[in-house]
Amino acid sequence: METTQTTHIFILSGQSNMAGRGGVYNGEWNKLVPPECQPNPRILRFSAESEWVEANVPLHADIDVTKVCGIGPGMIFANNYLPVCAAKTVVGLVPCAIGGTAIAEWEKGEKLYNDM
Question: Acyltransferase as a keyword (predicted)?
Answer without folding.
Answer: no
